[in-house]
Amino acid sequence: MSKSDKYPSESGRRRFVKGVVGGATLAGVGAMGSATVNTLTTAGGVGGGSTVAMTIAKAGGPAPRGLPQIPVRVTDDGFIEGVWPDVTTVEQEGQEVEVAQQDLGGRLYSGEWFQYCGVESQENVQPNFESDNLFRAVDGPPYDWQSETYEGGDRIHVDDFDDYDSWGNGIGNDGVGKPALVRWRSEEAGTDLNALVIRSERIEAAAEEDDWVDASTDQGFMAYLNVCTHFCCIPGYKELEESSRYDAADGSYCVCHQSVYDPFTLEEALFIARPRPD
Fold this sequence. Notes:
Layout: H1 23-40, E1 49-60, E2 67-70, E3 72-74, E4 80-82, E5 87-92, E6 95-104, E7 107-110, E8 136-137, H2 144-149, E9 178-184, E10 193-199, H3 201-207, H4 211-216, E11 221-225, E12 236-237, E13 252-254, E14 259-273
């Protein structure tokens, strides 16, 4: 396959799409989402509103958009961490509020990417929540390698992904990407932020060609918030054999309503982020 086409040739799809996808569709999502937000949030909230996030692409099913990407980096001692945006103070609607946002790879990366499905009410997405931002293993992960390597709360380390170019678990193709189910910014927090980390050769190749991918991934690692944008369920990457029925054996599949996401296609998505509680 060529550098410009990260999918196998028979699929006809391209990876790491640039630009806002489906403008007409997104306009509809924005209007519908706004009406929903107006009924579910109070006027006293801060933040929120029309937001453009980088997401893993929605490939099928009823979900309105993809899952928000979490930029990552590998620390000097080899642990994997999610990047949280810089915290600044801005004026919104006549009052000064703290926001988490920064330029990254030529795009505005914001904490508002994660303000949906009630996540906006969690303390760990508040701009000033103190966290080391390291990804930590969940209890009872669906991957044998992870349960054999880590206990819940252990930090995820690059050395444990050495076989990422060949790893497989009998679902889909081997060598697509090695995953770990993790929680993020959740130490000392009342509620976990569920996320998924993947290391893949496809991500390494894309980082050589795209400024955003280069800035938001590291050594083939990428991550995303693992909360379905449909009804807030928890999707699974290479977890269930039934995912092959929905062309999702090598993707992220939400068993609740058959929404499918492609972790190896990153695209912009426009949506209405919910305001944080006052």
